[in-house]
Amino acid sequence: MDEQVARYFELKQRQREIEQELGELRTSLLAYAEANGSAGWENESYRVKIVEQERREYDDHKLFEALPDPSLWRLLSRADGAKIASLVKLDVLSEASLRGTYSVKPVSAFQVEKK
Questions:
Q1: With contact defined as beta carbons under 8 Å apart, do 108 and 48 qualify?
Q2: HSE-up (13 A, CA, CB side) for residue 40
Q3: Terminus of the chain with fewer CB atoms < 10 Å: N or C?
Q4: 8 Å CB contact between 79 and 85
Q5: How many helices (H) and strands (E) does the chain have?
Q6: DSSP secondary structure string, 39-79?
Q7: What is the pTM of this model?
Q8: Residue 79 predicted with pLDDT over 80
Q9: What is the distance between the terminal CA atoms of the chain, rounded to a whole angstrom?
Q10: C-beta of residue 43 within 8 angstroms of C-beta of residue 69
């Protein structure tokens, strides 16, 4: 059991390091694309695409006030976009009732494909 705990700890450390390096590379590549006015590029081995998306950022207070049943807040506990989208899909919440509870933030999605 001690070996598994040690291995788990080691892997979590590596995961943090990898996620940090991925974030730095993503920032650098997005800056390159922005500086060149590019939505993507290709070389001999890879195809890079930058896709603009929108992400909703909910205001907890406004969202709580917009809920038809305050007990729904226990399901959410905080404004979690994925949970809110699921409740809309299940018709527990409506898009109309959520209007004004969030702001839309543009986000660049980064995709790299090997040719």
A1: no
A2: 14
A3: N
A4: no
A5: 5, 3
A6: SEEE-SSEEEEEEEEEEEEE-HHHHHHH-SSTTHHHHHSS-
A7: 0.59
A8: no
A9: 43
A10: no
Edge to edge, the sheet with strand 46-58 lists 40-42, 46-58, 102-114
Q: Count the alpha carbons within 13 Å of 30 in the hemisphere toward its beta carbon.
A: 14
What span, in angstroms and rounded, lies between the C-alpha atoms of 34 and 28? 10
pLDDT greater at residue 50 or residue 67? 50
Residue 11 CA to residue 19 CA, distance in Å, equals: 12
Rounded Cα distance, 45 and 65, in Å:
51
Place of tokens 């705990």: 5
C-alpha 51/C-alpha 108 separation (Å) is 6
Q: Report residue 102 as tokens.
A: 């969030």
The β-bridge relationship of strands 46-58 and 40-42 is antiparallel
Distances from the Cα of 84 to the Cαs of 58, 65, 73, 98, in angstroms? 10, 14, 10, 9
- What residues form DSSP beta bridges with 110? 50
